[in-house]
Amino acid sequence: MSLTMLFSRSFRDRWRPPLSLVIALVLGIMLLVPLGGIVFFRVYENQLIQTTEGELIAQSAAIAAITAQHLRQFGGEDLPLGTNAIDQPIPYSMEPLISTLRRSKNQPEGNWAPQLPILDLNKTPVLPARADPVATDVRIHPAYHATGKAIATVLRDTQRLTLAGFRILDPNGIIIAGRDDTGLSLAHVEEVQTALGGRYSSALRERTVQNPQPIYSISRGTSVRVFAALPIVLDGKVAGVVYASRTPSNILREMFLKRETMFWVLAFVLSATLVVGVIFARGIAGPIKALTERSLKIGRGDRDALKPLVIHGNREIHALSSSMLDTSRKLFERNDYINTFANHVTHELKTPLTAIQGATELLRDGGDELSDAEREKFLGNILADTERASRLLNRLRELARADSVEIGGTCQLSEVLSDIRRRFQGITIDAREDCMLPLAAENARIVFENLIDNSIRHGADRVSFSPEETENGFTLAVADNGEGISAGNQDQIFDLFFTTRRASGGTGMGLGITQALLKAHQATIRLRPQDRGACFEIGFPPRRR
Questions:
Q1: Pseudo-torsion of CA 273, 277, 278, 279, nearest 10°?
Q2: Mean pLDDT calculated for residue range 398-423
């Protein structure tokens, strides 16, 4: 395996970006969104270019129609014309509209030849500034000269309203109407040459900006000018050219005109970024940081850290923190339980072991001096203490099984009690009614046998089972008619190794085993007060539907 692969794997395994870095990246991406507006600026700027060209085409078409009308009036049939005009193909995007117009009864018949803008700021090269008109020896035909004078007023009025520059050229490219350059030739200009050949042409040319501002650098539209050359067609031939030009609207100017909208857009972006940051910080980063600090404190044994977070954030973090705190709390409880349990076991086993050791030493040291009765007494004590230690170990094994019992299963109360009756012959066991219990039959048998054995040790000859439905599930009351439990012992009956029948072989673990097994099934057990005997109430969780 190569070093690169080893390094890459090690890097992936060890490096984990902190949540704050992830949030910073997300916020950075959101802040980059406005920079995407630069791309929008380019698109919008290109749209301004095409809009300008479209307006020049529309204005030039109207001027070309008026010019053609004047040429017919002043020139008659002897009017000199240029080359044949080239029919423009109908753009694909315009075909549905043209078809609709041709079917319309309100539209005049004719050959439709719409001219769409062709300039593209991203594709069309920007040419140098337009060359100045040059002098020529070619004389202007009187008809064109008269037309130029007649159309001059129209050009001035149009330019005053549209801010566009217009020049009317004859078939030779000589200016017949426009500014003070009438009589000069523009035939050497590229787009004019194309228009004199019978085809529409347009171009982007450099424009010199006086005192340019640095902010203008983000807009290409401030340094170009749109030129459009539209042929004037008369009887299918080129009768001249309408040469128009105009500087497109500046995108910065458009933004200034729409400054209120731009302000609210910017305010929305900043507000959205701030809201996302607050949501991330409060809903994810803050709770996770607090949870991390809390887990470190718990790891150091700080029990005061076992409390809910002030801010949980979202649902998943709340579930994670609750689970972590519950697990930590159970681990602390388990640790306390193990410590207490170890102390109890040590104490309980120490007594018989000490007695066995003492009796054995006496038997060893006494030798022949001990009588048969004394030797028999010591051997009996050793046997009794050995049996007690064996009972304690068996009970410990039962307690361990109760702590790790298999959860689940159901059983019928009547069937479990039927099996128990065969073991306990000298006691009456009855049930007020039958019910389904949410634990396996073997686990139910262990619980009930411990309770019945406890009743027998306290002088009972009758045990009754009474199930009852409640709002929080259902309960099972196990009552006997024995001696009952004194008020002084009621708080200790579930403590391990607590017993009032130690002399008769009691280990004090029966109720502890019962409580541990029920707890594993999410059930509870408590002593219910009553006048005679003892009554234990087992509470089961609600039944699953």
A1: 100
A2: 73
